[in-house]
């Protein structure tokens, strides 16, 4: 048991380090990057790693490290906005469904709506929104945010139903305490740990979704840096310049791994 806890603790620490590196790169890109991530230098195109360009340059001569840093800012900003939107909508609806279900008044309408949303994955929503509004960062935020709502509803509902059967909550209900006060005083503080875990999982899924949508051309348009768009642009050069795909692919994999490890470690710590 102690060994298992240590292992998950180490995994959580490693995940925290990976996430911190991604966040630091994103914040640093706001004030500094080694080169202008949008500046093309045809004379230095497809250069490998060197002292001047640690990660090499792309097909237009742009510094890959600078674009990775700039892409971190864009990817994390999109993921943060999408996850925040999912949580702000999904958690209250899940708490409502859980409180109504525990009181024997159903809550089936909310869960039916969540099941309906599951039929519309982020890719399908992004295609529809792109057809209506055109490709943009906001399309990705809206599509990923809507697709993430059912997960928060389900997690919040299950946690709420467990809390609602506690003696102190039953006593508060018998005393006539308003439902919204019970939600704020008892439900939300007790389900906060599992919501935190869901946020970590949702962040990892949002990063993958953003990268996938950008890879398909449904995200932020060129020439702005996006890890998924960088992977898309690297396809014609995989045989001759594999570093074009290596660095953005590694950035996506390590950041997603970081959020997953952080979520798993937080879950084990809460148990």
TrEMBL record:
GO terms for biological process: transmembrane transport. InterPro entries: BP-dependent_transpt_permease, MetI-like, MetI-like_sf. The chain crosses the membrane at residues 12-32, 74-97, 109-129, 135-156, 191-224, 244-262. It is a multi-pass membrane protein. It is found in: Cell membrane. GO terms for cellular component: plasma membrane. SUPFAM superfamilies: MetI-like (SSF161098). Its main location: membrane. Residues 72-263 form the ABC transmembrane type-1 domain. Keywords: Cell membrane, Membrane, Transmembrane, Transmembrane helix, Transport. Belongs to the binding-protein-dependent transport system permease family. This is Peptide ABC transporter permease. It comes from Corynebacterium hadale. The lineage of its organism: Bacteria, Bacillati, Actinomycetota, Actinomycetes, Mycobacteriales.
């Amino acid at each position: 048991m102690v060994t298992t806890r240590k292992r998950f603790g180490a995994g959580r620490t490693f995940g925290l380090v990976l996430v911190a590196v991604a966040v630091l790169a994103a914040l640093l890109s706001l004030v500094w990057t080694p080169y202008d991530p949008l500046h093309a230098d045809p004379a230095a195109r497809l250069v490998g790693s060197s002292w001047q360009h640690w990660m090499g340059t792309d097909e237009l001569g742009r510094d890959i490290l600078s674009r990775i840093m700039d892409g971190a800012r864009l990817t994390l900003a999109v993921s943060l906005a999408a996850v925040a939107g999912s949580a702000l909508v999904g958690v209250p609806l899940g708490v409502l469904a859980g409180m109504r279900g525990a009181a024997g008044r159903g809550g089936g309408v909310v869960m039916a709506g969540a099941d309906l949303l599951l039929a519309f994955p982020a890719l399908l929503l992004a295609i529809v929104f792109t057809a209506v509004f055109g490709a943009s960062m906001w399309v990705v935020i809206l599509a990923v945010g809507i697709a993430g709502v059912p997960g928060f509803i389900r997690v919040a509902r299950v946690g709420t139903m467990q809390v609602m059967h506690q003696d102190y909550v039953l006593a508060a209900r018998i005393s006539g305490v308003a439902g919204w006060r019970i939600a704020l005083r008892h439900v939300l503080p007790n389900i906060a740990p599992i919501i935190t875990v869901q946020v970590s999982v949702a962040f990892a899924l949002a990063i993958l979704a953003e990268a996938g949508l950008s890879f398909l051309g449904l995200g932020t348009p060129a020439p702005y840096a996006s890890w998924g768009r960088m992977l898309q642009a690297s396809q014609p050069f995989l045989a001759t310049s594999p570093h074009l795909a290596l660095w953005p692919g590694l950035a996506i994999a390590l950041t997603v791994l970081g959020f997953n490890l952080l979520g798993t470690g937080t879950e084990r710590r809460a148990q």
